[in-house]
Amino acid sequence: MPDQYTDRALTCVECSADFSFTAGEQERHAQLGFTNEPKRGASCRAERKRNTPGGGQREMHVTVCGECGGEARVPFVPRNDKPVYCSKCFESKRTG
Q1: What is the pLDDT of residues 6-63, one digit of tens each?
Q2: 36 torsion bin: left (phi>0), alpha (psi -120 to 50), beta (else)
Q3: What is the separation of C-alpha 85 from the centre of its chain, rounded to a whole number of angstroms?
Q4: Backbone CA torsion sign across 75, 76, 77, 81
Q5: Which residues fall within 8 angstroms of residue 11, CB to CB, at 6 or more apart?
Q6: Is the pLDDT of residue 1 over 60?
Q7: Which stretch of DSSP H or E encloses residue 42?
Q8: How far, in Å, are 68, 73, 80 from residue 14 at the CA level?
Q9: Which CA distances in Å does 57 have to 14, 29, 49, 75?
Q10: β-strands 61-64, 18-21: how paired?
């Protein structure tokens, strides 16, 4: 992972407008494990989310936190090969 990112201009696939993929956004994408750069600008992403069936609401799944044993609600089907954390434990691990 690069130590330093620089702002980059990208073109939205929906409206063809240029938008900035900032250094901070690039770093966050890398931290989350994303390998593709965004294809849409913020306004087109928001519009697409609003038009998604269910109003952009994700189906949440309840499981047990791998750290504290409490309830964890996650937007994906948990698998048994990796621990899943509640919001509090996830934030604690993320910030170190």
Answers
A1: 999 999 999 999 999 999 999 999 888 889 999 999 999 988 888 877 666 678 899 9
A2: beta
A3: 15
A4: negative
A5: 17, 18, 19
A6: no
A7: helix 42-50
A8: 43, 32, 38
A9: 21, 21, 9, 10
A10: unpaired
